[in-house]
Write a structure and sequence with these properties.
Layout lengths: L1 E9 L10 E8 L2 E2 L3 E2 L13 E8 L6 E9 L8 E9 L5 E10 L4 E5 L6 H12 L12 H4 L5 H9 L3 H10 L7 E2 L11 H4 L8 H7 L2 E5 L10 E2 L2 E2 L6 E5 L7 E6 L10 E2 L5 H42 L5 H6 L6 H13 L4 H5 L6 H11 L3 H4 L1 H8 L8 H21 L6 H6 L1 H14 L15 H23 L2 H5 L22 H7 L3 H15 L19 H25 L21
Antiparallel strand pairs: 1-5, 1-7, 2-3, 2-4, 2-6, 6-9, 7-8, 10-11, 11-14, 12-13, 14-15, 15-16
Helix pairs in contact: 7-11, 7-16, 7-17, 14-17, 14-21
Main location: cytoplasm
InterPro entries: LipOase, LipOase_C, LipOase_C_sf, LipOase_mml, PLAT/LH2_dom, PLAT/LH2_dom_sf, PLAT_LOX_verte
Cofactor: Fe cation
């Protein structure tokens, strides 16, 4: 028996659900599956807004699933229309196909739906040729087009066309999907001995020390990757590096990279790569930085510092606060679906059979060490957005829209928190005396972050100001910060050479040895590239039931004063959204990940 996992989504508008019987049959290259009833007893299947998961068995291996049959039959002779959004089918081998439907099924209807992407005969032959060489290297950079054309984004197209440009490489540290790594360089680290002679051509009329004093030199350091064991994928050793990248902000032109070292230990086997080196040397050095950025983004900044931090607030809220507590009401919209998505992430992404383990260089045995190291680096100041910006010294960077928009959102959340809770906590003593609130904080600190005694959290809330700041941080992390890290994944990672999920050869230890053949042998193979595209699309795609920050259907608060504050918060978010839209009109790449109309209220994907 061959079992296929099927997901069926019902529309969210009124009357989309049905009490009629819906049957599904899968049709593949080699035959048909069994006909399965999707209306299971006592499961509330096919209700409005539901997304149900089912198993469909087949006596034979269907091969590629070509279409889905949906049959509707009346229950007790009663007619009840059904609106189907889509069906996804995952084969026993792990291949997932999407079948968009978006239509009503009425009466005794039968609908045949085909896979979403438009296909031509040539396209199908193209894919069949691709499957034959799934574990092989690409022949050239242009070959990545074979998977890129399937699902495009406007930013993804821009990335494909500009990814080798130095200014664009630097731009991603500001406004890409991992915009929180760059920091001011206060002095050249001893472990990264860049000299004036090396960068003279890039700093005409000035010196490295002069530009450091002016605040124009910046650094990105991936030291968290030092010593992390790299994954073994399908029996083949993968490779990691812990590079350091130096960047320069000229007086009137964009940020540029000026030096890259691919390890934390300088020496003859760890040269400092420069833009003046051979084009292949410099390109491969940048590829190693981008791959390292992918690792830190996925495992540390996105998983550990957003998803898992948000989970701590969610669990403490459910365990310690009654539903009538004002902080329960305040935080619940920002913890919606967080536990569910994190549990799915543990099984589908992080487990031994998960996607991260299958294709990411920092997955597998080294992932736990890497994540623990990332958590030990976490501090309260790094979670508080204005202090994070100050601590990294990036207040003067031009064109840093993540910073600009994030500060606006932080201020709006802060005012909202203070205005709501100021109605309940009139004095600092009210905060101190709230035993349920203090138990919530104890749960967060002692249970959620028990192995991080130096994180910087207070053990007791002693003032309203402490409470306002802490809850602003919690809401910002679960909404804006997660959106900034999550929503752009497909945009910046769909062109695989721009953000390689793994590297299949070790980093170069000498200049002049890099060829295009070596670059292609280092980049992800056909299979890894395809999976990278698929899972970054899956993680970064917009969800149909996304609730935006500040906008929720449930009326947790009933007091008129609080309802007024909520409305003011929404108006402020709309004002910020208009400001960002206006700013974006003049930009070659719109920065929209922190537009309030793009920010989910919670970590739900």
């Amino acid at each position: 028996m061959f079992n296929y996992r099927v997901t069926v989504a019902t529309g969210t508008s009124k009357y989309s659900g049905t009490n009629n019987y819906i049957y599904i049959t899968l049709v593949g290259e080699r035959g048909e599956s069994r006909r399965v009833n999707l209306d299971r007893p006592f499961c509330n299947d096919l209700e409005r807004g539901s997304v149900g998961e089912y198993e469909v068995g087949s006596e034979v291996d269907l091969g590629a699933v070509l279409l889905v049959k949906l049959d509707k039959e009346k229950f007790l002779g009663l007619e009840d229309d059904w609106f189907c959004l889509y069906v996804t089918v995952t084969t026993p081998g792990g291949d997932t196909r999407h079948f968009p439907c978006y239509r009503w099924l009425s009466e005794e209807a039968r609908v045949h739906i085909r896979e979403g992407p438009g296909k031509s005969g040539l396209g199908e032959l193209y894919l069949k040729k691709l499957v034959v060489k799934m574990d092989a290297s690409w022949d050239s950079l242009q070959d990545f087009e074979r998977i890129f054309w399937r699902v495009k984004s406007p930013i993804g197209v821009f990335v494909r066309e500009n990814w080798q440009d130095d200014c664009f490489f630097a731009y991603q540290f500001l406004n890409g999907c991992n915009p929180c790594m760059i920091q001011k360089c206060w002095e050249i680290p001893k472990k990264f001995p860049v000299t004036d002679e090396m960068v003279r051509d890039l700093l005409p009329g000035t010196t490295l020390q002069q530009e450091i004093k002016k605040g124009n030199i910046f650094l990105v350091d991936y030291e968290l990757l030092e010593g992390v064991p790299a994954n073994v994928i399908q029996g083949k050793q993968q490779f990691l590096a812990a590079p350091i990248c130096l960047l320069y902000q000229p007086p009137s032109s964009p940020l540029i990279p000026i030096a890259i070292q691919l390890s934390q230990t300088p020496g003859c086997h760890s040269p400092i790569f420069l833009p003046s080196d051979g084009s292949y040397d410099w390109l491969l050095a940048k590829l190693w930085v981008r791959s390292s950025d992918f690792q830190v983004h996925q495992i540390i900044n996105h998983l550990c510092w957003a998803h898992l931090v948000g989970e701590v607030f969610c669990i403490a809220t459910l365990r310690q606060l009654p539903a009538v507590h004002p902080i329960y009401k305040l935080l619940t919209p920002n913890t919606r679906f967080t536990l569910e998505i994190n549990m799915r992430g543990r099984t589908e992404l992080l487990s031994e059979s998960g996607i991260i383990t299958k294709v990411v260089a920092s997955g597998g045995p080294g992932m736990v060490m890497f994540g623990q190291r990332g958590f030990r680096a976490l501090t309260y100041r790094s979670l508080c957005f204005p202090e994070n910006i100050e601590e990294r010294g990036v207040g003067s960077l031009r064109d840093y829209y993540y910073r600009d928009d994030g500060l606006l959102i932080w201020a709006a959340i802060r005012k909202y928190v203070e205005s709501v809770l100021g109605l309940y906590y009139l004095t600092d003593q009210d905060v101190v005396n709230d035993e349920e609130l203090q138990a919530w904080l104890t749960d967060v600190v002692e249970e959620g972050f028990q192995e991080l005694p130096d994180i910087g959290f207070s053990r007791v809330f002693r003032s309203r100001e402490e409470l306002w700041k802490f809850l602003t941080m919690a809401i910002f992390t679960c909404s804006a910060q997660h959106s900034a890290l999550n929503n752009g994944q497909y945009d910046w990672c769909c062109w695989v050479p721009n953000s390689p999920c793994t590297m299949r050869q070790p980093p170069p230890c000498a200049k002049g040895s890099v060829t295009m053949e070596k670059i292609m042998a280092t980049l992800p193979d056909v299979s890894q590239s395809s999976i990278q595209m698929a899972f970054t699309w899956h993680l970064g795609r917009p969800l149909p039931d996304k609730k935006l920050l500040g906008f929720f259907d449930e009326e947790y608060f009933t007091e008129k004063e609080v309802i007024k504050v909520i409305q003011e918060f929404r108006e402020e978010l709309n004002r910020i959204d208009r400001l960002i839209v206006k700013r974006n009109k003049g930009l070659p790449i719109k920065y929209e990940y922190l537009r309030p109309k793009q920010i989910a209220s919670s970590i739900n994907v």
